[in-house]
Each structure stands twice: as structure tokens, then as C-alpha cells.
Amino acid sequence: MQAIQAAAHATEILAAASAGAAASRRAEHVPAAAALVALTAIHGADAAIVAHLPTTTDPLSPTLYPFVYADGAAVLASIAIPAGLTVAASVAPARRARVVVLVATVWALASLALAIPYPSPSVRGTALQELYLRGDLAGLFVSMVTLILWARQRTSPTTSHVIAIGLMALDIGILIVPYSPWRTGLLAGRWDVVQVGCILFFAAFTAWQVWLWRSASRSTSS
Fold it and tell me: Is 53 helix (H, G, I), strand (E, B) or coil?
């Protein structure tokens, strides 16, 4: 289990690094690179945070509350970033700063709304899982509506759109795969299935982004 988790994080790091390399040659890939780097940092930080928390739905000691708040904020950020990427990739570059501010504001408010009631049962256990699921579905809805509106403009997709659609596909796969943590419980679910999916997707992102970087390098030199 730990080996699979380490491999999943390693491929995510490679995807983020290759995204940065591709973005250095292709401006259209900057939103995707920012999203992948942010997701990698958040997932790495959250893994360290979760290590300090016991696997229980019972109220924790007040000394652990900061870790609970940080974990909730990290989960919400990992939900918000893919949706934000889809919107950022679909609007004019001049409007992307507004998208970042909007996503950050929604994330901050949602994080506060999750933290303030703790340790209420409304934000623990099954109730917390339902809140996360609703947030995840809301993020997918935003992404899908954004892509539909963007497609109606009949403009060519950017490389950031490819990553955004890939993250959507990964998210949907996690929701519907057998033994999904969303079905069996976030604490008791089989995360190995999810992590194998992450390895495959991020490895594909890495290979494609390396190709983007190399092809852009060739065109620049020629």
C-alpha cells in the first residue's frame, strides 16, 4: 500500500515538473502547469497532515484541531483546482487573474464553513464524506458547464484543456470505479485502486508533456 502511494506521488511530481517544462515553451500550458504544481504540493502537504491524525470519526483532542482544519482545506483545494483550471483555460488570458481570485475566495469560504462547526457531527464521519462528495460533484458540474460553453464558441482547444479534461476523467473514474472510497468510506475505502489510476493518468500526462516540451524545443531551434 505504501509503495503504491509513493509511486502515485512520484508520478504526480513528474507530471508537475514536466508541466513546468512544457509551460516554459508554450504559454497556453501555463494554467495546466500551475494547477498540477499546486495539486502536487497540496497532496504532499496533506499526506504529512493526515499522518498526525488518527483514523477515527470520533472527536479529536483540541490540540489536533489545526491538523483537522488543514486537512479539510487541502481536500477542498484539490476539488477546486481542477474546476478552476477548466475555467482558466477557457477564458481569455487577461481574465485568468479574476478566475484565480474567485476560486481562492470560494475555497477560503468553504474551508471556514467546514472548520467552524468542528467537532459537530455535521462535519465528521459519513456527514463529512457527503460534504466532500457534494463539493466534488459541484466541481465536476462547473467544469462540464464551462466546457460546454467553451465548445459553443468553436475555438481550438489548448494544451491546458487536455489536462483539464484528463483530470475530469480521472475524477469521474474515481467516483465510479469498484471499491471507490466514495462508496465504501473515505477511511475504510480501498485507496490502492485510486492510486493505481493516478499513476496511469499522471504517467500519461508526463509522457505527453515531455513530448510537448521537446516538440516546442525543436520548432524553436529550427
Answer: coil
